[in-house]
Design goal:
Elements: H1 33-44, H2 49-56, H3 60-79
Helix pairs in contact: 1-3, 2-3
Length: 81
Amino acid sequence: MPSCPTRRGAPGLDARATTFGGGPGSVLSTLDRPERSAVALHDFAGLSSGQIAGITDRPIDQVHTDLRAGTAKAEAQQAAP
């Protein structure tokens, strides 16, 4: 099984800059729904890719793709001035 692109407690999304409300300025609000779900469940709920695949009824390969894409987009937004 491929490793997850981020791990809980590892560098990745800054929880202080991320809100679940989806309001203006929210990092999560800028992600597509599948990416947002995967990132939130992985980084904030600590679920594995396999658990996310089961909960969302999506193939694990797609969950990995969503995690990579969502994490990359969120990190790019956080790095932008």
